[in-house]
Amino acid sequence: MRWLLRSLPLLLLTLPASAAVAAATNVAARQGTPTPPLSTVGIVTPSPPKPNYLDGPQMRTSHRWRRFPVRVYFAPDDAYSPERGRTVQAGFDEWTRATGGVLSYVIVDSAADADVRVHLLSVPHLADSPTTVGLTHTSSRGPWLDLARMDLAADASVTPELLTEVAAHEWGHALGINGHSDDPSDLMYGVTVRVIHQGAVSVEPPSHPRTPSLRDRNTVRKLYADRFATAH
Ligand SMILES: [Zn+2]
Q: Using CB atoms within 10 A as the burial measure, which of 12, 59, 72, 231 is most buried?
């Protein structure tokens, strides 16, 4: 939570100074009045896209990639096949599409060159928990993401539709969304929570993989506000 609080002003400061801010500052300078305090600047700075959940109750401090495209490497695990790789990429592609290509990725052939390493494992769920089908670990330096590892359960019981949806959800984490939405209609809601309860709750694989919602899209737009501001 300490870092979450620290991240808020950083996000505001990454927003571009609008023409209105520049004009107001110039007028203030000519008139010999002090530069407006940050709180005043905040009023005329373009508002972050809403609704979003970047500062929601289930979120921790989110970090960002410094450069795009993010480089993705598929490890040659037992469940990897080119077909499964494409099924996973279909989930990643939903975010590329939803962000107009601003948050893009590229596949690389070497783990050493990768930002994100994807592991497709021939298990019905991950070893960490009997109820987890996808897991993404990220490491960071300062505000920047440094490396990510994504584990996906991908044995024969995991349908392509489910794999695509879980991959899309996990890619949201890999892009920097560090937590979950509190709205069940969002892709970044605890989807893995919904699909993983294989005990008393029956699993109903999605007939159509879910895609980033408006709130999901707004959340990454807020996280990468500077990048979206210069994208068009
Ligand atoms: Zn998640």
A: 72
pLDDT tens digit sequence for 27-39: 333 344 443 333 3
35: its two tokens? 């530069």
Question: Is residue 176 situated within a structural domain?
Answer: yes
Assign 138 to helix, strand or coil: strand
78 C-alpha to ligand 1 centroid (Å): 23
Ligand 1 centroid to residue 165 C-alpha, Å: 11
What range does the domain containing 108 cover? 70-227
Residues 80-130: tens digit of each pLDDT: 999 999 999 999 999 999 999 999 999 999 999 999 999 999 998 887 677
Residue 208's H or E segment, with its range, is none
Integer Cα distance of 75 and 216 in angstroms = 28
56: CA distance to ligand 1 center in Å? Answer: 14
What is the number of structural domains in the chain? 2
CA of 29 from ligand 1 middle (Å) equals 48
Q: What is the pTM of this model?
A: 0.75
